[in-house]
TrEMBL record:
The chain crosses the membrane at residues 24-41, 62-81, 93-113, 154-179, 191-213, 259-280, 286-303, 315-339, 359-379, 391-412, 424-447, 459-481, 493-513. SUPFAM superfamilies: MFS general substrate transporter. This is MFS transporter. It is found in: Membrane. The keyword Transport applies. It comes from Sphingomonas ursincola. One of its GO terms (molecular function) is transmembrane transporter activity. Keywords: Membrane, Transmembrane, Transmembrane helix, Transport. Residues 28-520 form the Major facilitator superfamily (MFS) profile domain. CDD domains: MFS_spinster_like. Pfam families: MFS_1.
Length: 534
């Protein structure tokens, strides 16, 4: 029987897997960390700007949940699929450079939005650009660091999420307060504080893109002793995936596979359309449920196409119950985490009566610290437990799902005390603890997805992983919390309602805990059985 330290891969003859990382690998990781910091500054800044955006554009909490979550998440997830495939076949550094320039420009464009629709369109553009980041970065990191260090390396990269999220609140809070004090009637070009904040965080990304372009591209798979030659047709797979995931091209791709495949594709479209129509009738949120239906239909179409075009990749991703349970289990962590993060600043402003600059500094600062500590310690713990148990990393994901529950309850039941800062201190402490506990799961989940596939599939595996975190966690968690807030008239009730996801996640992670060991030991065998020339 294979032990927990056995290597899943069989090294190429004469090439031993690496056992340590080079100094350049750490340099590259630092740059990728900065990219992820900016990624989340641009993504998260809308949370601190939400009260001003709601007032200026006439929006409610459900609208903010849509703008923060669904408008971004659906396009991030869908374009992440073809861009993840491109990361598996093209120059990953170039791909990341282009994507960074695009999402930074679209963040700046958000500063000129005059209504919810134009802001939503800009958020969609941010999502498309940011879809290049993690597939490229995960694949690069996995080719710079050996397996035994991969959980730690991916956790360090992922810490950028929490630094970026925290910094976005601090920057956004100070800019809004300072700009509105200096220009109470609107400043240059008629811009108000929240619009100036979008511009201030978007433009620096163009400078960072120039630095990213100087990075070296590592040899794919060499660190595992499985060097993979560059693709001779790098864009072929990208366009195949694009046609397989973007409607209405999805129907053409299905028809090319035969009448039965076309009928199944149309059936899925009709079913999801009916579900969306029911949800629209129930909530009145047309854009929310149209985007969700399109996103889920596109993922179904892509997975069906992948099964026909690349049996080995399908077998190790969608055909692997261990992989699917892992990403959906972590998706439940993301569901909880994104919902609480989305409305933290709004709760502090509307329920506790705090000003924007104070919220940004304290919640942003402690949120960044808590997230950083959680993801780093969680990554280290996942590597330590993995060395002792093949299911060790799944235990860390479960920890990240269970432990935030009590801090979330304590934070979002905090009542306003007009005579003391104790209420704000309590909220900040418990919200930060929830963030720290939830963040511990990310490195473990990311490393598990990379270990369950072959080197050439890592970008696609990452894109699939982020389908769960975005189309499920980000697209549904914040919106449903906002919608329940509107229905109940209580933001506290809205946020606390999302705790129903915890038992669902624990069930999925139990199955992952049971299945991951065998799945990881048999990666090469299952890939070979599906036609991979290993």
């Amino acid at each position: 029987m294979a032990g927990p330290n056995d290597n899943q891969d069989t090294a190429a003859p004469g090439i031993a897997p690496a056992t340590s990382a080079s100094p350049y690998a750490w340099y590259g990781l630092f740059i990728l960390f900065l990219v992820y910091v900016l990624n989340f500054i641009d993504r998260q800044i809308i949370t601190i700007l939400a009260p001003d955006i709601k007032a200026d554009l006439g929006l409610d909490d459900a609208d903010i949940g849509f703008l923060y979550g669904t408008a971004f998440a659906v396009f991030y997830a869908l374009f992440g699929i073809p861009l993840g495939r491109l990361a598996d076949s093209w120059h990953r550094v170039r791909l990341l450079t282009v994507g960074l320039a695009i999402w930074s420009a679209m963040t700046a464009v958000s500063g000129f939005a005059k209504n919810g629709l134009t802001l939503g369109l800009a958020r969609m553009g941010v999502g498309i650009g940011e879809a290049t980041a993690s597939p490229s970065a995960y694949s690069l990191i996995s080719d710079m660091f050996p397996k035994r260090m991969r959980g730690t390396a991916l956790a360090i990269y992922s810490a950028g999420l929490y630094f970026g999220g925290g910094i976005s609140l601090m920057i956004g809070g100070f800019i809004v307060a300072g700009w509105n004090n200096a220009y109470p009637g609107g400043g240059p070009l008629g811009l108000v504080g929240w619009q100036a904040a979008f511009l201030a965080v978007g433009v620096p990304g163009l400078l960072l893109a120039a630095w990213v372009a100087t990075m070296r591209e590592p040899v794919r798979g060499l660190v595992d002793g499985l060097p993979t030659p560059p693709s001779t047709e790098p864009f072929r797979g990208f366009f195949q995936e694009l046609f397989a995931v973007i409607p209405p091209f999805t129907m053409i791709a299905a028809a090319q596979r035969g009448a039965a495949a076309f009928a199944v594709n149309i059936g899925a479209l009709v079913l999801l359309g009916l579900i969306a129509a029911g949800m629209i009738a129930l909530t009145g949120a047309t854009l929310q449920w149209l985007c969700i239906a399109i996103g889920y239909y596109a993922v179904f179409s892509w997975a069906s196409s992948l099964r026909a075009r690349d049996k080995a990749t399908f077998a190790l991703i969608w055909g692997s119950p261990a992989f699917v349970c892992t990403i959906l289990g972590y998706g439940c962590v993301a569901f909880l985490s994104y919902a609480t993060t989305a409305f933290g600043p709004t709760y502090a402003a509307q329920v506790l009566g705090e000003d924007t600059a104070k919220i940004g500094f304290w919640i942003g600062g402690f949120g960044a610290l808590g997230g950083f500590l959680g993801v780093i310690l969680g990554g280290r713990m996942s590597d330590w437990l993995r060395a002792r148990s093949e299911s060790g990393r799944i235990m860390v994901i479960a920890f990240g799902l269970i432990t935030p529950v009590i801090p979330v309850i304590l934070a979002y039941t905090t009542a306003n005390d007009p005579n003391s800062d104790a209420d704000f201190i309590r909220f900040t402490v418990f919200a930060s603890l929830a963030n720290m506990f939830a963040s511990s799961a990310l490195g473990a989940a990311a490393a598990t997805t990379q270990d369950l596939v072959m080197p050439r599939m890592r970008g696609t595996a990452t894109a699939t992983f982020f389908l769960a975190t975005t189309l499920f966690g980000l697209a549904l968690g914040p919106y449903l919390a906002g919608q329940m807030s509107v229905i109940s008239g209580s933001l506290s009730t809205g946020v606390l309602s999302i705790l129903v996801i915890v038992p669902v996640g624990l069930t999925l992670l139990f199955f992952a805990w049971r299945m991951v060991p065998l799945a990881e030991r048999t990666v090469v065998e299952r890939a070979r059985a599906a036609g991979e020339p290993v």
